[in-house]
Amino acid sequence: MNLALRNRQLLVLVLLALVTVLVLTFVLLSAVAHVDVWHGLMSWSGTVFKPDIAYPRP
Question: What are the residue ranges spanned by the domains of the chain?
Answer without folding.
Answer: 2-54
